[in-house]
Design brief:
single chain; about 240 residues; alpha/beta; Rossmann fold; globular; binds adenosine-5'-triphosphate; binds magnesium ion
Length: about 240
Amino acid sequence: MIAIRANGLRVQKNKHVILNSIDLNIAKGRLVGLIGPSGSGKTTLMRSIVGVQQYDGKLQVLGQEAGSSKLRIKIGYVSQSPALYGDISVRENLKYFATVLRANDRQVDTVISSVELDKFEDAIVDTLSGGQRARVNLAVALLGGPDLLVLDEPTVGLDPILRNNLWKLFHKLASDGKTLIISSHVMDEADRCDDVVLLRDGEILWNDTRKKLLGHTDTESVGDAFVAIISEAKNV
Ligand SMILES: Nc1ncnc2c1ncn2[C@@H]1O[C@H](COP(=O)(O)OP(=O)(O)OP(=O)(O)O)[C@@H](O)[C@H]1O
Ligand SMILES: [Mg+2]
């Protein structure tokens, strides 16, 4: 089953081509790493998928045209600089966003425990650590029980232990059947994913399983594979 299918997806701003007619397939229930250097177009692709970016070409998300109002409740999005209310508690933030999304109070309880923030539900957001804050953002995205989670650099700035805990959580969500697309410019994060989308200068260099990527490039890490794929592209 396909979660996302793009054909000739193109985003251009002024005369600058940001996504250059890309084709992309993402299967349901997978943990997908969207990996590429800074400025490669990761955020623009994610914004297109969640329906806040104008594009040309075809982009189907969960069987609907991207941007369709039917998708609102089915997609959870954490942007690169997510906004929480710093002067109120975790629970109060979630209650606020639940009202916006028309989710009920029971869902607030569910998402608090699924990101393991039960002990911190009454903490004021400004007093939280980076890792706890990342969890609150994830909890907001989980309100309404989305099938697809689009997370833009959710682990940036976190220490290795917090990063590891967050990845465990992502795997748990994937094993619950959700599709997760997680962007990073840190290549080794992709070593934790089922599938890898490698993006460079608005073009897709790879869109398949991580295993096949390592096999194809005869490498042992996505970082090395990325370098190999780039030199392969140059030699063509
Ligand atoms: N509103 C805009 N107007 C013009 N150019 C833009 C705009 N937004 C992004 N760009 C350009 O598009 C390219 C891709 O940007 P994008 O934010 O999608 O990259 P990214 O891969 O998410 O980068 P990062 O890792 O730094 O977050 C960059 O060259 C950026 O300068
Ligand atoms: Mg970005």
